[in-house]
Amino acid sequence: MKPSTEGVQQAVEDAIDLLSCLDALGGRHGTVTLFRDADVDRACKIVDDTQILEQIDEWREEDRERARAAAGKDTAGSGGAPLTLGSRAVVVALVLLGLNSEPLLITNVVTLMEVRISRHKQAELGIVTSSAPPDTASAEELRAYSRSRYARAWRRIRELLDVIEPYPVPHRRLLTDEEYLEVRTSWDPEEVARKRDRLDWVVNQLMEVSLRAAPTRVKAAWRGSTCIDGTGLRLWARGTSQHTRWTSIEATAGWHTRNKEVWNPEELTNAVEGKGRKRNKKESYWGYEATFAITCSDDPNDDDPIPVLVAAMALERPAVDPSGTAMRTLNSLRDRGHPAGYLAADSLYLFNCKPEEFQIPARLLGYDLVGSYRRDQFGITESYAGADQVEGQFYCPSMPKALVEASKEYFAGLIDEETWVARIAQRERYVLRPKERVAPGEPVPMVCPAGGPAPTARCPLKPASMEPKHAGKTRIPVVPSHPDRICTNKESVSFPIEVGAKYGQTLAYRSERQQAAYKTFRNCVEHFNAYSKDAAYQDLEQGGRRRLRGFAAQSFLAAIMVMAANLRKLHGYISQLSVDAEGRTRQLDKRGPRPRSRNRADFAPPSSRRRSTPSRT
Fold this sequence. Notes:
- The chain is of the alpha+beta class.
- The chain has a domain at 11-68 and 82-163.
- The protein has 18 helices and 16 strands.
- It has helices at residues 5-24, 37-50, 52-71, 87-99, 106-116, 119-124, 139-163, 177-185, 189-212, 216-221, 322-335, 359-364, 401-404, 406-411, 417-426, 485-488, 512-532, 551-575, and strands at residues 226-234, 254-262, 278-295, 310-316, 342-345, 368-370, 380-384, 387-390, 393-395, 433-434, 444-447, 457-458, 474-475, 493-495, 577-579, 585-587.
- The strands form 5 sheets. Strands 1, 2, 3, 4, 5 and 6 form a 6-stranded mixed β-sheet that branches. The chain has a 3-stranded antiparallel β-sheet with strand order 7-8-9, with no helix packed on it. The chain has a 3-stranded antiparallel β-sheet with strand order 10-11-14, with no helix packed on it.
- Strand 15 and strand 16 form a beta hairpin.
- Helix 2 (37-50) crosses helix 4, helix 2 (37-50) crosses helix 9 (189-212) and helix 5 (106-116) crosses helix 7.
């Protein structure tokens, strides 16, 4: 039966209408920007400098040898058909997207490789592109072509990620709780640890290549001081629930909960008058937590500080092994040859973790801890050889009680801030001093404040301190009834690294130097968290910009985004440098012209503003 003339005419009109819509929307691929050959070369250099592809190939061969040995096979498997797309091309495309602040999606990778770079660069990257379907192709043919292009890129990136995936989970369907439990029990702990180390190496190689791009003056100025902090990364997936037996499609993630700052006075249900903003709302989302180790300047008052960059990072489930994740970043820094300086962190890591899990390993790496305490951690926390540890440092056992309890009394409202700061400063007269600098991990010889050739106090138990030349120094009023070694030894007492490890820190708590360093370091890490989550650029927090599933995939894509943020930060820093006549560089003033100051009347409603009276002529 022949179709009617009216049916054919309607079909032709529908096809013309669809083609008109495609033309109006920019064609099949939409409106895209092209990358210059120089941009592609830059991304290729970054990927080659990391050497991650060569290392992943070696690891893949190791896994094959191990699998062949386990199966009792001595020969390698047969080869397959030649690849029309290599792994290097996919990684270069992801880096290009990251540098251009675009979402790291496989669809964007496919479009970039086939449309947005020149034919010359496609050939260099080994991208074999087949002829696109003609404009007269059917919808089924266009769909098949698109899916084949997508599947090719997806397979290449998955082949890379499988080598470094510590938690292999099916990502094509939801699992029940029972199925996920079976998957988890099938994981080999040794294999998990091995591949997690691989993943950390790959992630931090991306950080290292951005650090190597820093100017020589920045590399020389950074002496290893860093700040550790965790920040949440949302996922493009729903979380688990107690009301269903199904897991999330991102089963290895967890619920990230954070306090939300509320500024509306009507919502401050638990606000304290005069204390400013109140954090009393919580926000939860399904995702991972990224732990950053940020570069910080040793001198908080430096007029030309170094740029704030992520020197190392690691991913983990929220609130799961924070101390171990932090140590993974610090170990990566030291393994890559970076120095160790001051180490600051919030209360999640310092003074709340088990000392054998974080504080002691960090000190063994050479870091000097800087942090703040909770209110229940003030006062004497430990005693050794007769000396008392008060808020991080060891003091003479006869230090006045008013100085020992200074912080407790201040937060209890018994003394004002001026008195508190004055008492903190007076503690310096009673603090024990290290006799000499020792290697990390070795016992530290500590000297009584009245001991040594330059005592800071006078004590009857130390006759040399009572000589007339020390008459102007603090007189210790009370001598212990049963003096211990710190009072009876002539020279010093060795303090092992385990003594006072939980609450110890190098700088005196609330001293001017300690406060300046801690606040500056914490501000640096909070600044970079906000910088990397800027919606106009990397927008790191949003899971919709990195939808590839799996722990390794999220770690790898997040690392590319952070590396791009590092390079963007370095570009802004270098653009603000100036060279004077003597060849020295200095940082220009970044502050632009300030707007005129406004008073309260500028924000008053029009009806309440004073009306100007026209002048009489």
